[in-house]
Design goal:
single chain; mainly alpha; two-stranded antiparallel sheet
Length: 188
Amino acid sequence: MSPESTGQNEHYIRVARRRFRAWRGDRPFWAGLFTILGGAPIAYFPYADLHLGSMTLTMSTTAGAGSLIIGVLLITLGLTMWFHHIVRVFAGIAAILLALISIPVANIGGFIIGFLLSLIGGALSISWAPGRPEGEEARADERTAPSSEQPYAERPEAELQGAAAVPQQQSAELDTAADADGGRHRAG
């Protein structure tokens, strides 16, 4: 053990922060956060009471159940973006659609606050992509990728065939089916 070794003497807050950063980097964290924050006002405002001195302003409308459902679904989609990031595109599209539906159903989308936050969260979820793998996988991808520095005509033929997904044509010697029936189609 050297006195410079890290890990044993680190403060637990620093370790927890590093773990959180690693967890956050593997998923669309900000997309989920914005979607959750967008669902909260949509679900809350129809049931809120605002007290101004001795006067109480009640926001209860006939859209209370619809607002609650939309808000809870948006919060669920935000959590889905965090814990099941494989379905991030579906969750992002669903969040955008629910945000748009919240405009007529849920008090103008939670007074525009919930609408905008959910819309941004859905867009971030759709646009998020996982990072490149580190180590040998990334190096192997770089070696097999065609080089963009050489023009297409000057690249080696093996590189061109590996990049193109076009099947090779058969030679005329192997086409015995056309010779067997005189070149006519079987149905004709």
